[in-house]
């Protein structure tokens, strides 16, 4: 799991699409400018398989959004680990 490292513009839209959400291509990379933290998990084939971010005002108030795990990787605890890591 990597925190605040570069993510290719297409990676999050591809992941969103894999779970049946709208791609929202125009949101990326603009979204990263307003996020405090984002996290990604990549497969051994270097494909983004999980993503989530925190946004808010400084470090006192915030929220998590777009916690996504690729369907092929459900049930492995990746989403729980992602949320835990973002909370750290």
Entry summary:
The chain is built from 2 helices and 4 strands. By secondary structure, the chain is of the alpha+beta class.
Radius of gyration: 12 Å
Helicity range: 10-25%
**Strand-and-helix sequence, N→C?**
EHEEEH
Q: For the largest sheet, list the strands in their spatial order.
A: 1-2-3-4
How many separate helices? 2
The low-confidence parts are none
Query: How many strands appear in the DSSP assignment?
Result: 4
Global mean pLDDT? 90
Q: What is the CA–CA distance across the termini? A: 13 Å
The backbone outline, from C-alpha atoms, is globular
Strand content: 25-35%
| Class per helix and strand makeup | alpha+beta
Largest sheet: 4 strands, antiparallel
State the main characteristics.
88 residues, alpha+beta, 4-stranded antiparallel sheet, 2 helices, 33% strand
Write structural notes for this entry.
With 88 residues, the chain is an alpha+beta fold. The protein is built from 2 helices and 4 strands. The mean pLDDT is 90. The protein has helices at residues 11-18, 78-87; strands at residues 2-3, 35-42, 48-57, 61-69. It has a 4-stranded antiparallel β-sheet, with helices on both faces. A hairpin with a 3-residue loop joins strand 3 and strand 4 (61-69).
């Amino acid at each position: 799991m990597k925190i605040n490292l570069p993510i290719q513009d297409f990676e999050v839209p591809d992941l969103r699409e894999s779970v049946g959400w709208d791609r929202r291509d125009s949101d990326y990379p603009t979204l990263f400018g307003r996020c405090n933290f984002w996290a990604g998990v990549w497969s051994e084939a270097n494909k983004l398989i999980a993503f989530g971010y925190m946004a808010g005002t400084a470090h006192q108030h915030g929220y998590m959004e777009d916690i996504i795990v690729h369907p092929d990787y459900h049930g492995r605890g990746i989403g729980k680990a992602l949320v835990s890591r973002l909370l750290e």
